[in-house]
Amino acid sequence: MSVMTAIEGCGLEEMVSGIIRHYSEAGVLPPVLLYVDSNCCGKSALMDIFRSA
Questions:
Q1: Is 44 exposed, middle or buried (0-12, 13-18, 19+ CB in 10 A)?
Q2: Which residue in 6, 28, 37, 44 has its CB near the most CB atoms, within 10 A?
């Protein structure tokens, strides 16, 4: 699965959480996160969302 967005915004975390929730409800492992180009100068909260899934 590939997901590309053009901006970072308040809806991005909700979208990622929804994707992980759908996988969880289906009883399968969520996709493996390969790369997030977000918050280039510090830790990205999106990485934590995928790691906790």
A1: middle
A2: 44
